[in-house]
C-alpha cells in the first residue's frame, strides 16, 4: 500500500490533524542537529504540546545501528507503546534511519516522514525503503515499511545549502532519465534556477510513486529507480571510507548515471548521441568526482554487494533511451571499473 502523501504549504496542517487523533499515543520527533535548529521551529506549532525530540548528529557517517539505538533508547525511556508515532524531520539519512528504527521498535510502530531536503522530498521519503549503512555498505540493513504519511513542505528548502539542493536534483534527473523523456527535454534547459520547486517535486514524486505502486518490494520494475546506483553506491561507499573526501549521495548518483549511461552504449542499448546529451547536461551541473586510476578497482569491488545482484551476477539498470530504463542487465566488476575509467577521462 502506498502511503498517504501531501505536498505543499498545507501539508503540515494535515500532519497536525493526524497527530491530534485519539489513536495517537506518544509523539517522538527524530531530527539531526541541523534540522533541529532550522526545521523544528517550523514544525513545532503543528505538533501536540507534549512530544519528545531525539537529536542525532548530522551526516551519512551517522546512518548507523548505533544511531538507531539512540532512537530506541528515547522510545524506551518515554515508555512509548504501540500507539506511539515517530515523526522523522530531516533529510534522507533521518527518514531512512528514523523509519527503520520505528519499523523495528516493539516489532513496528507508525512513523511519519517530514522530509526537509530536496532529495528526501522527491525520493527518500517516498516508497518505504528504510535502513542504515553497515560495514561500509549503503543501506545494507533495512526493511521495506511504508510510513503512515509523507508531508512535503517546500518551505523547508529555504535554508538548504546549494550543494545539497544540487544533490537532490540528481534524483529528479534520474526520474526523468528512467521514465520521463519530455521532462528531461524541458528540464535540462531550466536547470537549478527554480523559484518554486512545488510542481517539480510533485512530478518527480508522481513518477516514483507510480513505479513503487507496481512493485513495492523491488522484485522487478522498481529496480529502475536504482539507475545510477550500482556505480553510484560503489563510489559513495568507497569515498565514505576515505577521511575528508566527502561525497553526497546525489553527487555519487550523478556520476553513476554517467557511468551507467556509458555502459548502456557499450551493451548496444543506448545511442551515443543520447549518451552525449546526458553527459553534457550532468557535467553542466556536477563537478567531476575526483579519484585516481589506482582506485577504480577498489571502488568497483563495492558493486559485488549491490542489493540487485543474484549470486555473483551484478544486475544493473541501464537505459535503452532517455526516458526508458531496463533492469537486470548483467555486468561485471570489470565493466564497472571500465565505466569509472571512462568517467575519469572524459
Ligand atoms: N529510502 C530511499 O528511497 C532513499 C532514496 C534516496 C536517498 N536515500 C538516502 O538518503 C540519504 C541522503 O539524503 P540527504 O541528501 O537528504 O542527506 P542528509 O539527510 O544527510 O541531509 C543533508 C544535510 O542537510 C541538512 N539539512 C536537512 N534539511 C535541511 C534544511 N531544510 N535546511 C538546512 N539543512 C538541512 C542535514 O542536517 C544534512 O547535514 C542517503 O543516505 C541515501 O542513501 C534513500
Ligand atoms: O526507492 C528506490 O527503490 C530507490 O532505489 C531509490 C534510490 O534513489 C535510493 O538511493 C535507495 O535508497 C537505494 O536503495 P538500495 O536498495 O540500492 O539501497
Ligand atoms: Zn538514491
UniProtKB/TrEMBL annotation:
Single GO cellular component term = cytoplasm
InterPro entries membership:
Dehydroquinate_synthase, DHQ_synth_AroB, DHQ_synth_fam, DHQS/DOIS_N, DHQS_C
Cofactor or coenzyme needed: Co(2+); Zn(2+); NAD(+)
E.C. designation(s) = 4.2.3.4
> 3-dehydroquinate synthase C-terminal domain: from which residue to which, for each copy?
168-309
Q: What is the superkingdom listed in this entry's lineage?
A: Bacteria
Q: What is its main location?
A: cytoplasm
One GO biological process term is: amino acid biosynthetic process
Which chemical reaction does it catalyze? 7-phospho-2-dehydro-3-deoxy-D-arabino-heptonate = 3-dehydroquinate + phosphate
Read off the Pfam families from this record. DHQ_synthase, DHQS_C
Describe which pathway this protein belongs to, using the record's wording: Metabolic intermediate biosynthesis; chorismate biosynthesis; chorismate from D-erythrose 4-phosphate and phosphoenolpyruvate: step 2/7
Indicate where this protein resides in the cell. Cytoplasm
- Family from the record: Belongs to the sugar phosphate cyclases superfamily. Dehydroquinate synthase family.
The name of this protein is: 3-dehydroquinate synthase
Q: Which gene encodes it?
A: aroB
Amino acid at each position: 500500500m502506498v502511503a498517504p502523501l501531501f505536498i505543499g504549504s498545507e501539508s503540515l496542517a494535515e500532519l497536525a490533524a493526524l497527530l491530534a487523533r485519539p489513536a495517537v499515543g506518544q509523539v517522538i520527533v527524530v531530527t539531526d542537529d541541523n534540522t533541529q535548529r532550522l526545521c523544528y521551529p517550523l514544525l513545532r506549532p503543528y505538533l501536540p504540546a507534549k512530544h519528545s525530540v531525539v537529536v542525532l548528529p548530522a551526516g551519512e557517517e551517522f546512518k548507523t545501528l548505533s544511531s538507531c539505538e539512540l532512537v530506541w533508547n528515547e522510545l524506551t525511556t518515554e515508555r512509548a507503546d504501540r500507539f506511539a508515532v515517530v515523526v522523522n524531520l530531516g533529510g534522507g539519512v533521518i527518514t531512512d534511519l528514523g523509519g527503520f528504527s520505528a519499523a523495528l521498535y516493539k516489532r513496528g510502530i507508525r512513523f511519519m516522514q517530514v522530509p526537509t531536503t530536496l532529495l528526501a522530498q522527491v525520493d527518500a521519503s517516498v516508497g518505504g525503503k528504510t535502513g542504515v549503512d553497515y560495514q561500509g555498505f549503503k543501506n545494507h540493513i533495512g526493511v521495506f515499511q511504508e510510513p503512515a504519511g509523507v508531508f512535503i513542505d517546500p518551505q523547508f528548502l529555504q535554508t538548504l545549502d546549494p550543494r545539497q539542493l544540487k544533490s537532490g536534483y540528481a534524483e529528479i534527473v534520474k526520474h526523468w532519465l528512467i521514465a520521463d523523456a519530455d521532462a528531461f527535454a524541458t528540464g535540462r534547459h531550466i536547470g537549478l534556477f527554480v523559484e518554486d520547486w512545488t510542481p517539480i517535486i510533485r512530478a518527480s514524486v508522481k513518477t516514483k510513486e507510480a513505479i513503487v505502486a507496481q512493485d513495492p518490494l523491488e522484485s522487478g520494475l522498481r529496480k529502475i529507480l536504482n539507475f545510477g546506483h550500482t556505480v553510484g553506491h560503489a563510489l559513495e561507499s568507497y569515498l565514505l571510507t576515505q577521511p575528508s573526501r566527502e561525497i553526497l549521495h546525489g553527487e555519487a548518483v550523478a556520476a553513476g548515471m554517467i557511468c551507467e549511461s556509458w555502459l548502456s552504449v557499450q551493451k548496444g542499448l543506448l545511442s551515443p548521441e543520447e549518451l552525449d546529451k546526458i553527459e553534457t547536461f550532468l557535467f553542466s551541473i556536477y563537478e567531476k568526482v575526483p579519484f585516481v586510476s589506482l582506485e577504480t578497482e577498489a571502488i568497483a569491488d563495492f558493486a559485488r554487494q549491490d542489493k540487485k545482484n543474484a549470486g555473483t551476477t551484478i544486475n544493473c539498470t541501464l537505459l535503452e533511451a532517455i526516458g526508458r530504463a531496463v533492469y537486470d542487465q548483467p555486468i561485471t566488476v570489470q565493466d564497472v571499473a571500465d565505466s569509472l575509467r571512462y568517467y575519469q577521462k572524459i
